[in-house]
Amino acid sequence: MGALPVEDPADDRWSMMMKAAMAGDEGVYRRLLEELGRSVRAMARAAFARARLGDADVEDAVQETLLAIHLKRHTWDPGQRLGPWVNAIARHKIIDAMRRRGARRAEPLEDFQDFLPAPEEEDPHALSDAKKLMETLNPRQRDIVQSISLDGQSIAATASRLNMTEVAVRVALHRALKSLGTAWRRSVS
């Protein structure tokens, strides 16, 4: 699952950075977490792509990995390389995220557009229900869902307009859609 090569020079640098961080260098620790985040993100994307699960939960897996590294950094043996320790944590967090995701697969909608019927007429009650569900979101999430899912804006355009990174917009959209699903299930039960 995308492990570091045995003689990866980044691993030596990471080990030195972790030692400096454990000695109290916050700036080095911040840079280390950024570098580890990029590496774990690539590892998670590859794992999710191989499983054909899409990348909606990748950021959650990355954040959970970085949090675990932070909380468990005292368990790392400075006499050992940091890479294998990080990879073990990342592998477990990615697997956990994939298990939570379940067997759902992300399939491009374009593959099915010839088979999906176009809506006959809009049901005014459905629009009313949708508006009620949207009101369950916080304003930022509502704005993101409206912009991307309803108005058809790109993630890049939405991120630029809201002064957010594209990754942050994707994560917020994913979480908002998850919240909408939960709110909808509550409303029909």
Note the main attributes of this structure.
8 helices; Rna Polymerase Sigma Factor, Chain: A; mainly alpha; 0% strand; Arc Repressor Mutant, subunit A
Describe this structure in words.
The protein is mostly helical. It has two domains: 9-101, Rna Polymerase Sigma Factor, Chain: A, CATH 1.10.1740; 122-188, Arc Repressor Mutant, subunit A, CATH 1.10.10.10. Helices cover 68% and strands 0% of the residues. The chain has eight helices and no strands. The protein has helices at residues 9-22, 26-50, 58-72, 82-101, 124-134, 139-150, 155-162, 166-188. Helix 2 (26-50) packs across helix 3. The relative contact order is 0.10. The model has no long low-confidence stretch (mean pLDDT 81).
Let me know the average pLDDT.
Answer: 81
Broad shape: elongated
N-to-C CA distance: 40 Å
Listing every helix as H and every strand as E from the N terminus to the C terminus, the arrangement reads HHHHHHHH
CATH class membership of the largest domain: Mainly Alpha
Can you tell me the CATH architecture of the largest domain?
Answer: Orthogonal Bundle
The count of helical stretches stands at 8
Number of strands: 0
Question: What layout of secondary structure does this protein have?
Answer:
Layout: H1 9-22, H2 26-50, H3 58-72, H4 82-101, H5 124-134, H6 139-150, H7 155-162, H8 166-188
